[in-house]
Amino acid sequence: MNLTLKVWRQKNAEAKGKLVTYKAQAISPDMSFLEMLDVVNEDLIKKSEDPIHFDHDCREGICGSCSLHINGQPHGPKHAITTCQLHMRSFKDGETIVIEPWRASAFPVIKDLATDRGAFERIQQAGGFVSVNTGGVPDANDIPIPKVIADEAFNSATCIGCGACVAACKNASAMLFVSAKVSQLALLPQGQPERYRRVQAMVAQMDAEGFGNCTNTGACEAECPKEISLTNIARMNRDYLTAKIFKEEEV
Amino acid sequence: MSNFAQTFSSSLGKKLIMSLTGLFLCTFLVVHLIGNLQLFKDDGGQAFNAYSYFMTHFPPIKIISYLLYASIIIHAVYALVLTIGNKKARPVAYASYKGEANSPWTSRNMGILGTILLVFIVVHMSNFWAQYHWGELPYAKYEVSLTDPQDVKVTPIPFNASVAEPAHADYVDSQAGKKVLIAKDLYKIVNESFQQWWYVALYVIAMAAMSFHLIHGFRSAFQTLGWDNNKFVPLIRFLGVWVFGVLIPLGFAAMPLYFFFK
Amino acid sequence: MKLDSKIPEGPLAEKWPKHKFNLKLVNPANKRKYTVIVVGTGLAGASAAASLAELGYNVKAFCFQDSPRRAHSIAAQGGINAAKNYQNDGDSVQRLFYDTIKGGDYRAREGNVYRLADVSVNIIDQCVAQGVPFAREYGGLLDNRSFGGSQVSRTFYARGQTGQQLLLGAYSALNRQIHLGKVKMYNRHEMMDIVKIDGQAKGIITRDLISGKIESHEAHAVLLCTGGYGNVFYLSTNAMGSNVTAAWKAHKRGAFFGNPCFTQIHPTCIPVSGDHQSKLTLMSESLRNDGRVWAPKTVELAKKLQKGEIKVTDLKEEDRDYFLERKYPSFGNLVPRDVASRNAKEMVDEGRGVGASGVAVYLDFAEAISRLGEDAVRAKYGNLFDMYYQITDENPYKQPMRIYPAVHYTMGGLWVDYNLQTTVPGLYCLGEANFSDHGANRLGASALMQGLADGYFVIPYTVGDYLATIGPKPVDVNHSAFAEAKKQVEERIQKLLSLRGTKTVDDFHRDLGHIMWEYCGMARTEEGLIKAKGMIQNLRADFWKNAIVLGVNEEMNQSLEKAGRVADFLELGELMIDDALSRKESCGGHFRVESQTEEGEALRDDENYSFVSAWEYLGDNQPEQLHKEELVFENVKLSQRSYK
User: Fold this and answer.
1) Own/partner pairs for B27-30, CB < 8 Å, 24+ apart?
2) Contacts of B85 in chain A (CB under 8 A)
């Protein structure tokens, strides 16, 4: 396959970026999208040109590093996968592919296609944990948890923190991410003591990071590589409003 | 910041306000539609004009109407605030953005739809509501026979600036065997307005916008409140689409069309 | 230098409790006067950083990823072992200990392995308390599944994403400490060197991967939790960024390297599809619970399959050879990884491999689907099947998966004593980065167990002993040792940046990988290893002449990052070859063709090789010196491993 790529190039956070056109030649349909970029980069290096910088690591869809906005969609056109799992057989020979970084003021571009997702870190640091120390905890089976609840908590917990929800949302809202984190612990008995404190702290941090607001378009759910559901957002809203209006805990 | 202020300045608090005012406006639509069904009565506007008087003079309804005006304003102002915030959250736009691949058109265009509705509401209220309150409205006198309710005599009382306004009256004249109603003739204004094609078109377009706005908005309000539970979400979806998205806008749109083609 | 493993005296079960009692403590008020550096934030690093911060130490944690949560522990799929015996099927600490020692082909320390089995039960409790959503039964209690190399069900799991869930648990504990100000987290920072003062590790030099800034960080102790070095093979199931640099720099600063040639080749990975391949994807070992491994009975059938003349679904039952079930009736498809891998290789070598390349065997779920139904299979393995489908475009519900072994884990690593301290005082090594616990082969679901055991339950005790000994005197970051180490780092970077040859760093890495896989992979011969040693030396020399490294240090420069890591792999590769050469026996994942039983199984030589190889670095381009730590077995009887 031969393809035309339009790739966002930006030297660093301060520099102005622009879309640059590259040719990707002799691409095998069995290559992953990132392997295709590897080929392009190898060519660039051999021509002494700066290779395209993009975040990636595990290349099996679980670490959440890769974060490319491909032809108008985060992680490309296929449903429920990350960029590293996207294969070139999903594209047509001769196609033009536009590759951009996540766009959000809370995710500033660091270089080319890599952004700083530190906002997600700070949101989790604000309260995404159960305050237990190592040791001195009860036996694992002392806390029975209904299977459906455990499964639902697991579904929320599968979020890989890639930021596709923010990238897809027309408002660059981080609600799906934050709600998945809030939900997991809100569902489980272990998370109850800090349940309302946690949701308030995490939402406050989310707001401070400058993400947009949710307008319930559902784009995040549709683009999430781990199919995190919108129900999480409803659950977070419910907990937050309950905390603010009916509970006596303070942030 | 107080807990209260903090709550309502947070992203979720703002959304709560959008959702509560939105839902309140939805309940208003139901009442408004049911009341306005009087327009379809072929009684020269008697029922409609009586209803109009009641709605503007019954104290509890008056209080609610102020709430309603406030809701409209708050809903619009918060929408504006949220939209500005949302724009700021993505300062650099995508060169390629395929929203249609992941979300319904209505959900992405609530702002545009809402703006159409706001324009409509302004036109609508200045034409009817403001006219009714402060405008130069004619009156109508309805004399209904006590023995035969079908026997109605309608006497228009044109507006006359030099004469003091005729007082609204609603009484039974037992001597004449008649029930008498003298009321502002809003019905006439409605009838006249809807003879203009462009006015009818505006209404129909606005109702289409309302339909799209509510198909997303009604369900969305429940999501924002956190009332998302697979036991009753199907019902909310059904109400959102078929009642608020179809039935109510159709009902409203039928009124101008009815007068236009009558 | 004599290696002292510091294994406590006494009966196996009492070693750790007794040792814990004998370790010195740091009083709570003094703990805040100490700083500990943790490099790497996978299971071992995150759990250690969080646990030490909870105790009151100041922790500085470093990772090269943009978030600690992205460390490659996240990709572990199958599960974590623990001797809970919740299933009432005869499990015990003793049995987990025995299975692990035997699975490791008797090349691990009894004391370490027993401790690991012992604390395994606490790990599950800890993770559940953090809110890790393990799989559960309808009664609300925890579910288990079975895994290779054992006959009990002791593996706790969270669908096919156990590593992710455990890491997120440790990460949440870490986040809590960052929030409390006890951990200072440095994302996108790479460790470039260890700093030693008076023989003790006192800090590290790092490079900020965004600005390129070279920084000095001082501490009272340094913990390396930097994972394995499987990427020396270029293609492995490791993440692209996984590297040996931190461990290798420590090695060059005096930390001995233990058993470098012990590599685990995982039997069930998606086969290589072409030269463009950048990494391999594992299909969890748990699949072997329900999947049956087979190859066509004859070479003729295999040829036809390779050419696409017949379809796999056309093959009749009698034409299929379920070779693991045939050869190992009692363990069947659940033999340990090294055994399963070697048998797959044997099939391919015989010409009975499948797929277009002929380098694969089948893993078949048809029987499981007909027994359990497609939905039940989907519930158990859905995400793995989806992953397979994404990569190969073949539907594993309809036809068997093609699998082939791939490099997955390295049992070797920095040599550590019972306290997890390397041969450099104050320098500790945890998790996959160290050599301990797994011997010559690691059992499935044991890596997560070891990483968390080290981080949550071992290091908090042992590091305290060292800190109490050295006292809380602040470390001077202005000491000349820091400036010197920093200068060396900068010089090396400049040297790399001056390379403007004709071959990319990836080209070199690929070449190195080919050599390692060919000669130091699943089967190793004396002749091959000697040849490989020369090839690596040549490749390394060529690298320093002909590699292309672009850009400058003061920017985000992936080309430079890669070059530094590959340069270290080029040195490590040779050490692995040396180690494989010197160990003339076969054991676990180390299969010397010269040493096999009549049936072709790995044949150990306990007489001569019952030791840990610990290699000491003596200088650039000097042969390394081998030290031997004799392994003492008082509780298990050494026998030829049999899974028949």
Assistant:
1) B28/B68, B28/B71, B29/B244, B29/B248, B30/B248
2) 212-213
CATH numeric code, A117-245: 1.10.1060.10
CATH tag, C267-407? 3.90.700.10
Is residue A60 less than 8 Å (CB to CB) from chain C? yes
Residue A249 has a pLDDT of 62
**Which residues on chain C are in Cβ contact (under 8 Å) with A56?**
240
DSSP track, B223-259: HHHT---TTTHHHHHHIIIIIIIIIHHHHHHHHHHHH
CB atoms within 10 A of CB B134: 8
In chain A, which stretches have pLDDT less than 70? 249-251
Using the 8-state DSSP alphabet, how is residue C142 labeled?
Answer: B
User: From CA A157, how far away is CA A64, in angstroms rounded?
Assistant: 13
Q: Is the pLDDT of residue C565 over 60?
A: yes
What is the average pLDDT across C565-570?
A: 98
Answer whether B220 touches A (CB < 8 Å): yes
- Where residue C196 falls among pLDDT bands split at 50, 70, 90? very high
What pLDDT is recorded for position B164? 65
Is C337 an annotated catalytic residue? yes
What local confidence, expressed as pLDDT, does residue C275 receive?
87
Q: Which two tokens stand for residue C222?
A: 């340094």
pLDDT of residue A251: 47
pLDDT of residue C147: 84
Give mean pLDDT, residues B68-76. Answer: 97
Please give the single-letter amino acid code of residue C481: A
Residue B210 has pLDDT above 60, yes or no: yes
Beta pairing, strands C155-156 & C80-81: antiparallel
Following DSSP, what letter does each residue of chain B receive, concatenated?
Answer: --HHHHHHHSHHHHHHHHHHHHHHHHHHHHHHHHHHGGGGS-STTHHHHHHHHHHHH-HHHHHHHHHHHHHHHHHHHHHHHHHHHHHHH--S--SS--GGGTS-HHHHTHHHHHHHHHHHHHHHIIIIIHHHHHS---EEEEEEESS-TT-EEEEEE---TTSPPPPPEEEEETTTTEEEEEEE-HHHHHHHHTTSHHHHHHHHHHHHHHHHHHHHHHHHHHHHHT---TTTHHHHHHIIIIIIIIIHHHHHHHHHHHHHH-
The domains found in chain B, sorted by start residue, are 15-136+190-261 (1.20.1300.10), 139-184 (no CATH)
Domain with CATH 3.90.700.10 in chain C: 267-407
CB contact under 8 A, A58 and C65: no
Tell me the CATH architecture of domain C480-606.
Answer: Up-down Bundle (1.20)
Give the predicted TM-score (pTM) of the model. 0.96
Per-residue pLDDT, C381: 86
Quote the CA–CA distance of C248 and C256 in Å, as a whole number. 10
Average pLDDT over residues C381-396: 90
> Which residue from A110, A124, A103 is spatially nearest to A173, judged by alpha carbons?
A103
Residue B86 scores a pLDDT above 70:
yes
**Residues contacting B134, CB < 8 A, separation 6+:** none
pLDDT higher than threshold 90 for residue C477: yes
Nearest CA in chain A to C169: A129
| CATH class belonging to A3-111 | alpha beta
Catalytic residue among C70, C320, C337, C342: C337
